[in-house]
Amino acid sequence: MIMLMDILDNRGLVSERDKSGALEVATHEASQLATQIEIINAPGEHGQIEKIVVAGMGGSALAADLARDWLDLPISLHVVKQYYLPQYVDTKTLVIASSFSGNTEETITALADARARGAMIGVISRGGELETIARRDGLTYAQLNFEGQPRMAALLNLRALLQLFIAFGVLGEHVIAELESAGRAVDEKAQSWTADVASADNLAKQLAWHACGKTGVMYAGSRFRSIAYKWKISFNENAKNVAFWNEYSEFNHNEFLGWTSHPVEKPFAVFDLRSSFDPEQIQKRFDLSDRFLSGLRPKAKRVDLLGNTMLEQMVYGSVLADFVSIYLGILNGVDPTQVDLIEKFKRELN
After folding, report:
1. Euclidean distance between CA atoms 38 and 45, whole angstroms
2. Among candidate residues 4, 26, 289, 250, the one with its CA nearest the CA of residue 153
3. What is the 3-state secondary structure (H, E, C) of 128-161?
4. 278-300: b or e for each residue (b if 16 or more CB lie within 10 Å)?
5. Which member of 253, 265, 280, 348 is catalytic?
6. Contact 163, 136 (CB under 8 A)
7. Pairwise CA distance, residues 231 & 21, whole Å
8. How far apart are CA 301 and CA 324, in angstroms?
9. Single pTM value for the model
10. What is the maximum alpha-carbon separation in the chain?
């Protein structure tokens, strides 16, 4: 009989539950940042870009969330997760339609809206209708080559997005070196989270055990809010586990009080995603919140985002999220890869 604590160190059982090899994909996830993306129909001369809108859903929008939090752009970057674009989109706006499958109806609708307003256009997809439109109409197109789920290709999508930014003159080539350096650093760290590393020495397995049987609640500082969101969607899709997220300092203005009633033995696993790049006041808010809520909520599990740069810490947090949630899926007895219910929902919707 397999003891409960031995589940994640039982290679046969892990392989049986991880049918599609999600752990293997996660092991090489950071190296996606070194993948050269083919840009088809590179943009020629164009007008001045005064604002950027990225239209996408789920994992396809996550790369834009990461870019928004990391980059200090001189123009606004807005991530749209719906059918229609803001009223301010015009001929001086760069709109990038991002859909891993190329068939996301919200993104296709947003693309049509952007073209009707005369916006500059970029497209990211693996194929589907977006590829057909881009190739047929000569739109600037970043081709993704990845066999797997969109949430596991967020870093590849980030590379594609930044290459489009470079192609349109929004960024310089130097960001590619930063991406690749961060990818190498995290790729090395990720080796300590693989299935071969025992739970006693494996942070990802330990965090999965902490979350087992509970609803995940993730908090991060405002510049790392995309990482808290990444943890949330990884828990949802990989572990088939309900999870929620919020950011500091917004947390202290509302949700903070939500923890102060009802019994303390709430079925939640609270994660504080902490960064050395969090401003002093944000770090103070983490500490004070934990102290003020002592005895009112489960004690937060501190997860330090490691790395020498902000980008490296973001990549670290993103890859760790997938490892933890895949292990949690294995503990939950589900296949971490499949998202059959979402696919069924899309078919019914259409």
Report:
1. 19
2. 26
3. HHHHHHHHHHCCEEEECCCCCCHHHHHHHHHHHH
4. beeebeebbeebeeebeeebbeb
5. 253
6. no
7. 19
8. 13
9. 0.94
10. 68
Q: Between 131 and 264, name the one with better pLDDT.
A: 131
Residue 346 annotated in active site: yes
* CB 108 within 8 Å of CB 135: no
Domains of the chain: 4-20+189-332 (3.40.50.10490), 29-172 (3.40.50.10490)
Helix (H, G, I), strand (E, B) or coil at 35: coil
At residue 347, the pLDDT reads: 78
CA pair distance 311, 316, nearest whole angstrom: 8
Candidates 54, 106, 101, 22; CA nearest to 226 is 54
Q: pLDDT-derived band of residue 21, with 50, 70 and 90 as boundaries?
A: very high
Neighbours of 176 (CB within 10 A): 17
- Determine which one of 92, 210, 301, 346 is catalytic: 346
pLDDT averaged over the chain?
94
pLDDT tens profile 66-106: 999 999 899 999 999 999 999 999 999 999 999 999 999 99
131 is known as an active-site residue: no
Q: Phi and psi of 314, rounded to 5°?
A: -65, -45
DSSP string, 171-212: S-THHHHHHHHHHHHHHHHHGGGSTTS-GGG-HHHHHHHHHT
Catalytic residue among 106, 237, 247, 312: 237
19 is catalytic: no
Instruction: Assess contact for 9 and 326: CB atoms under 8 A.
Output: no
Burial degree of 2 (CB within 10 A; 0-12, 13-18, 19+): exposed
Task: Tell me the residue type at 119.
Answer: A
What are the φ/ψ torsions at residue 177 (nearest 5 degrees)? -65, -40
Which token pair is 223? Answer: 């510049």
